[in-house]
Fold:
Amino acid sequence: MTDQPRPFTAHRADLAALAEQGRRRALAPRAGRDFASNDYLGLAASDVLRDALAAGIARGLPAGSGGSRLLRGNHAEHEALEAHAARHYGSEAALFFATGFAANAALFATLPQRGDLVVHDELIHASAHDGMKLGRAGHVAAAHNDAQAFDDIILRWRAGGGAGTPWIAVESLYSMDGDRAPLAALADVADRHGAVLVVDEAHATGVFGPGGAGLAHALPRRDNLVTLHTCGKALGAEGALLCAPAIACDFLVNRGRPFIFSTAPSPLTAWLVRQAIEIAANQPERQARLHALVRHAAERLVPLGIPASGTQILPVIIGDNERAMRIAGSLRDAGFDIRGIRPPTVAEGTARLRIAITLNVDEDNIDDMADALAQAMATA
Structure:
């Protein structure tokens, strides 16, 4: 009998290589003032959301669903949330998923068909990439936020015999750059080519649009639009809502393996998300306060050579991986939770700090952070 390799040998080697490159990750408890989370409206630990959760418990809502939606796991609260989300986000129908990753994976693995083409922004979420790998359609990246690049790719595909449906996949607000997609121009491209426009609103939901309905809400109503609204960022809960024409949701219920074979999200969570959507819609002062903080942060950071993004996500491009991590470490030592982001999460040579502005901080916290950042950048 020959000697067998030790189990997990390849895994140990991979982790050792990551450590050698300074890229091995580890979990750590949260600490310091919050400039890292996606809890943009400060709802996650708020009394108002805690009270909503207590009300759901008092109503006797179950903590677990007990099965998939197609078995006994379907609950009235799931359907109430989906109906409410469709009205609020301006779609014909909606489906609730346990996470944004699951929703994106299900969408791209299921809806684009063989012979279709998914043209996606080069910076789109990793979950969309994973879904495309599982799907039947071809897929190709377009230059970031370049509507003409999307148009050109579809034209070349059609000229080469492409006869299916094009799918244009973007984020409305990009999580590492803080910039917005040219949605109106992309919608025009979609209309010209009979394409479906897929807009991931993960970082815009709750923050932009009337009642926090997102950036795509500004588009005229259309039957070729799919939007994704995650519930674990500005809404302070968890899960994701895929909002789309009814035919798309019906197809996912019948063909979407991540939906069909997953245990349904908690009915209690569905109730909580519905309350969170209402809180964001009925307390516009939260959104206004956040935008005021974003403007204040820009006023403090622009003099440091950090361009304003115009959104709650403020990237500080450092370039060098090790220097980015040294600055992030200095800021954490000073009591500010700011994370360094390195390749492959971002492109080579663009290591950065990702500063997120939330209602968990105030103007004084931002002033202190800006002073500490200036000091750290000067000495790192």
Observations:
- DSSP finds 13 helices and twelve strands in the chain.
- The first helix runs from residue 9 to 20.
- The radius of gyration is 22 Å.
- The mean pLDDT is 96.
